[in-house]
Design goal:
The complex is a heterodimer of chains A (140) and B (81).
Chain A (H helix, E strand, L loop, with lengths): L4 E4 L5 H5 L9 E8 L3 E2 L2 E10 L1 H18 L2 E9 L1 E4 L3 E9 L2 H18 L2 E7 L4 E4 L4
Parallel strand pairs in A: 1-5
Antiparallel strand pairs in A: 2-7, 3-4, 4-6, 4-8, 5-7, 8-9
Chain B lengths: L2 E6 L2 H7 L3 E6 L4 H12 L9 E4 L2 E3 L10 E5 L6
Parallel strand pairs in B: 1-5
Antiparallel strand pairs in B: 1-2, 3-4, 3-5
The chains are: A alpha+beta (140), B alpha+beta (81).
């Protein structure tokens, strides 16, 4: 059985990721996919690189998912995040949730992606069309 | 009395420090003091209040004392997702 939160150095495969979420009691499956877009604050983006403090990212990601399991009436939940070099259109992060009913599935999915973005030590390095690149460190 | 620790740097802090990790000997009384020493030495540029700190893979308080042989990471604002 795979961990609830995982880091991946190669492309994410959604059918593989969602397979363990299937349960006979589940009436709802909600997912979120974060994709690499070609613009940021008006600048043309050509690609990006994600760096993680892997040990802490895996621990903090697992903590986020454990919180979601206690807060929402869900059956199962996973999150996978890419690290390394990504191209425009690549899947950067995936969250999948199953529940008996849709409200809990949507709510847990939203909670997990919001907490992952604000707490888990992963950093985005964006490359721009002009040839420069920068680390993104958004202030809370 | 000084303590030897391993310090990890990530993202823009890694670029400022010019290295991803180092062994460092410090007499600082706590992690906050260690950060002030290293920020001055490497011109890290970040005010400590905008960072978090982790020891041996867990977030901790800045006022925790240094422990011999521990692995310390300063965590700038994150941008995953």
């Amino acid at each position: 059985m795979s961990a609830d939160f995982t880091l991946h150095e190669s492309a994410l495969d959604i059918s593989t990721l969602r397979a363990p979420l299937a349960h006979a009691q589940a009436g709802a499956y909600a997912s979120f996919e974060g994709w690499v877009r070609n613009h940021h604050v008006g600048r043309a983006v050509t690609g990006l690189h994600y760096e993680a403090y892997a040990a802490l990212a895996e621990a903090e990601g697992a903590k986020v998912i454990a919180e979601a399991r206690t807060r929402f009436e869900i059956i199962d939940l996973r999150c996978a995040h890419r690290i390394g070099d990504l191209a425009i259109g690549d899947l950067a992060v995936w969250v999948g949730v199953t529940a008996a009913h849709r409200d809990a599935a949507f709510a847990a999915c939203r909670y997990v992606i919001d907490e992952i973005k604000s707490r888990v030590p992963i950093w985005k390095h964006e490359r721009y069309a002009e040839g420069d690149a920068t680390w993104l460190h958004p202030q809370p | 009395m000084s303590v030897a620790v391993t310090v990890l740097y990530f993202a823009s802090l890694r670029e400022r420090a010019g290295k991803s990790q180092e062994t460092y000997r410090s007499t600082a009384i706590d992690l906050a003091g260690l950060y002030e020493e290293l920020a001055a030495q490497h011109a890290l540029g970040w005010p400590r209040t905008q960072l978090r700190v982790a020891v041996d893979g867990a977030f901790v308080d800045w006022h925790q004392p240094l422990r011999e042989g521990s692995e310390i990471a300063f965590i700038p604002p994150v941008s995953g997702g």
